[in-house]
Write a structure and sequence with these properties.
Largest sheet: 5 strands, mixed, barrel
Oligomer: single chain
Number of helices: 1
Shape: elongated
Order of helices and strands: EHEEEEEEEEEEEE
Strand content: over 45%
Number of strands: 13
Strand order of the largest sheet: 5-6-7-12-11
Radius of gyration: 22 Å
Structural class: mainly beta
Distance between the termini: 24 Å
Length: about 200
């Protein structure tokens, strides 16, 4: 679920940070820049783990801060395929279920990855699994165990302006830069209460 990734960057230490040790100032700058940020094809950066290499800093002409080239490792949330995770049901619709893990909300369980015999109950606004004459409801905010099928990355960098044409406007919703496609179709998967 979490992996260590080696990154390299040139960071600045502003004069107000000179009172700190060099390592602490760099860790604070790395955390400010990378924590809770999705790096394309890498994952969701959580926190700096350690510093591997720190070059000597340099001051550019007419600036008061120090630029330092640093190589470091960050802890990244990037579950692998077929990994089993636990979260909570955040919302439900006829298209499927959205799950949250508290720190990450872009987990989708599409309708075709529900257990056989599942259907969406529009009056209750939840999914129901009909199994051996029982109706098992997937209520909101219930803990759920799911299997990761795929990690989806979307390049959300600003689009290039069109030459000679007008853009149609801003889309109503922006897709997430990183999301997980998951399944609860299998033994031991689904609400934790089903398997107790």
């Amino acid at each position: 679920m979490f992996v260590l990734v080696v990154l390299q960057d040139t960071l600045k230490i502003v004069p107000s940070e000179f009172r700190k040790s060099r390592q602490d100032a760099l860790k604070d700058e790395i955390n400010a820049k990378y924590s809770n940020r999705v790096l394309h094809d890498i994952g969701l950066c959580m926190v700096v783990h350690d510093l591997l290499e720190i070059d000597e800093g340099f001051v550019q002409h007419s600036e008061g801060w120090i630029w330092v080239k640093v190589k470091f490792r960050v802890i990244v949330f990037r579950p692998f395929a077929d990994e089993i995770l636990v979260g909570r049901i955040r919302s439900a619709s006829p298209e499927g279920i959205q799950v949250t893990m508290g720190f990450f909300d872009d987990i989708q369980i599409p309708a075709d990855q529900m257990p056989v015999g599942s259907e969406f109950n529009a009056t209750e606004g939840v999914w129901v699994w009909r199994f051996e004459g029982n109706e098992l409801f997937l209520d909101l905010d219930e803990p759920i165990r799911f299997r990761v099928l795929d990690s989806l990355f979307l390049d959300v960098s600003p689009p290039r302006p069109k030459v000679g044409g007008m853009d149609s406007g801003i889309p109503a919703s922006h897709p997430p830069p990183y999301s997980l496609m998951c399944s609860i179709n299998g033994d031991g998967l689904g609400l934790l209460s089903w398997w107790e």
